[in-house]
Amino acid sequence: MITLKGKQIYLRALEPEDLQFIHTIENDESIWEISNTQTPYSKYLIKQYLEHAHKDIYEVKQLRLVISSYDDEALGMIDIFDFDFKNRRAGIGILVKEEANRQKGFGKEALSLLINYCFTHLDLHQLYCNISEDNKASIQLFTGQGFKEIGLKKDWNYLNGKFKNEYLYQLIHK
């Protein structure tokens, strides 16, 4: 049985009711750096995205899940992207939306559940993530789950008039 349930949270598929939640996240300029977004998204575009979110990961090469509390509050999202079945690897991204919900173990539990899903059910060999050099919370989260820093991409992202470095982290399943 596939289990995406933890002690505090569970991971679930996107639903049409998530339209406003996703719209708020995608249009929050403070997180555009981590999502490589430069422009706002309309509700119309997000609705279209939600209508196709059911498609198979092998077809669309990504999977976005909602991090949900057991009282059904959407806390954030966790993504598998650049899914490459041939080479058995994928990228992972995570966001806990409200600052008040961070540092409570929700992200750690979500990441742990997704890692297990990727290695057990998708039969992946490795996962990776890209983290800005000043995102200490994400560095701590991913290294705490066994990800190792394998590279530094110098001057990788341009933000607010200056370039920022980005680390590449990797977790290889043994």
Automatic annotation (TrEMBL):
It holds the Pfam family Acetyltransf_3. InterPro entries: Acyl_CoA_acyltransferase, GNAT_dom. Residues 9-165 form the N-acetyltransferase domain. Keywords: Transferase. PROSITE patterns: GNAT. GO terms for molecular function: acyltransferase activity, transferring groups other than amino-acyl groups. PANTHER family: GNAT-FAMILY ACETYLTRANSFERASE, SPERMIDINE N(1)-ACETYLTRANSFERASE. This is N-acetyltransferase. It comes from Oceanihabitans sediminis.
